[in-house]
Specification:
The protein is mostly helical. It folds into two domains: 52 residues; 218 residues, Fumarate Reductase Cytochrome B subunit. The protein is 73% helix and 3% strand. The chain has 13 helices and three strands, in the order H-H-E-H-H-H-H-H-H-H-H-H-E-H-H-E. A three-stranded mixed β-sheet has the order 2-1-3. The longest helix has 32 residues. The protein is elongated. About 3% of the residues have low confidence.
Length: 297
Amino acid sequence: MADSEEQLTRELQRELEQELERPLDDAELRRIKELVRAQIEKELHAKSRAAKEKPQEAEEYFVRFSMNFCLQHLVLAIGVILLTITGLPIKFHDSAWAEFIFRHIWSLEVNRIIHRVGASLLMLVSVWHIGWLMTHAGRRELRELLPRVKDFWDFIAHVKFMLGLSPERPKFGRYSYSEKFEYWALVWGTAVMVISGLMLWFHRIALAYFPKYIFDVALQAHSGEALLAILALVTWHMYHAHFNPDVFPMNMTIFTGKISKKRMMEEHPLEYEQLIALSPPAPLPSEGEGGGVRGVG
């Protein structure tokens, strides 16, 4: 603003001095500066008011996940967080930081209780999810999550794109190869954790029916799979759900169930094309309403 004011002042001064055929005195220069400043402020105020009054284009959203699915994820997240913050101190119980937790934050017995609450939530959501998979919506999602040959070629094409060997990224449908891998890794990991965890929780019953080496295998499987799951969460999942520049600081789709049209077109273009082909255009929102929402299924 200061540069524009100074430039306009000089131009007006030059024009007036040419017209009057004499240099302007200090009082006249001050008057010109006041007029120029007032004019610039008036124009800026007018632009700001026009920008506020201009109606913003409403963003269109698609319903990607049902509320049932979102609640399953919420319970799963709470259970996994509880299992993580209590499982790591048990695994590394001989470390200084674990000893600090047991002495100053909560006792080993409280830690075990919280861990079992987290385990109960994990088992609850597992049964819930299995029951949901038997519904029409669940079976449809399961079909979309099944691995296909296209996923392999999508992986190859994606690697080529990331290495700069291809100008285009692969087009994904409802679930990309990475989302399918994460889902089935979760299914496998949950099965291992639940079975081995129940053997450790009810160790007397387990030892009454299984030999000691089976119990030892369950102990190592539970510990190793838990650490593997935590590493996958803090690297793979945390990046895609939080640190990816496209969704930073958090991808809210799994909590709201909705995804913007822009992200839908970028991340799931094949599903977007299918939805547009099968569904009529959504009505434009009336004045004062939010963006339109389409159903995904």
